[in-house]
């Protein structure tokens, strides 16, 4: 949970720096006590752009001693499995109702720690002029 919260802070800092267009500024992070190298690697599972791009951006701006490692997966279930099986510390691409169904089906205990943006999507088809035309 600590790594997931740290990732949220790093991700927020990375997005802020990206929005400002200046990746050289220092992002603030704090850690108490001593840490091992294993404690400083935050593995984040994601499967598609733009989420994978954002994880990579956060990896560029995170400060020592922390590093962020992208665990790229090929579908929506694999990133939940990776977190559930301790192969990743967090995922960045999650729909909370989907996660709740995943937890019920797999006896999981995944929790949402920070909502992410809603991606705006478009639907395109050569055979329909409007959404009302779809049966």
Structure explained in plain terms:
Strands 2-1-3 form a three-stranded parallel sheet. By secondary structure, it is of the alpha/beta class. The chain has helices at residues 2-20, 37-40, 51-61, 76-84, 96-106, and strands spanning 41-46, 67-72, 90-91. The relative contact order is 0.16. The longest helix has 19 residues, at 2-20. α1 packs across α3 (51-61). It is 40% helix and 10% strand. The model is unreliable at 13-34 (pLDDT under 50). The chain has five helices and three strands. The termini are far apart.
Would you summarize the structure shown here?
The protein has 135 residues and is α/β, with parallel strands linked by helices.
The biggest sheet, with number of strands, parallel, antiparallel or mixed sense and barrel status, is: 3 strands, parallel
Outline: globular
Strand element count: 3
- Residue ranges: pLDDT <50 for 5 or more in a row? 13-34
Pick out its properties.
single chain, 135 residues, alpha/beta, 3-stranded parallel beta sheet, 10% strand
What is the strand and helix layout of this fold?
Elements lengths: L1 H19 L16 H4 E6 L4 H11 L5 E6 L3 H9 L5 E2 L4 H11 L29
Parallel strand pairs: 1-2, 1-3
């Amino acid at each position: 949970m600590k790594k997931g919260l740290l990732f949220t802070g790093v991700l927020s800092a990375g997005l802020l720096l990206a929005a400002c267009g200046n990746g050289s500024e220092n992002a603030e992070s704090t850690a108490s006590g001593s840490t091992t190298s294993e404690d400083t690697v935050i593995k984040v599972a994601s499967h598609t752009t733009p989420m994978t791009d954002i994880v990579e951006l956060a990896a560029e701006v995170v400060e020592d001693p922390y590093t962020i490692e992208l665990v790229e997966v090929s579908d929506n279930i694999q990133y939940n499995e990776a977190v559930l099986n301790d192969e990743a510390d967090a995922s960045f691409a999650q729909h909370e109702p989907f996660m709740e169904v995943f937890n019920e089906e797999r006896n999981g205990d995944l929790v949402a720690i920070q909502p992410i943006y809603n991606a705006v999507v478009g639907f395109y088809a050569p055979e329909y002029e409007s959404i009302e035309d779809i049966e």
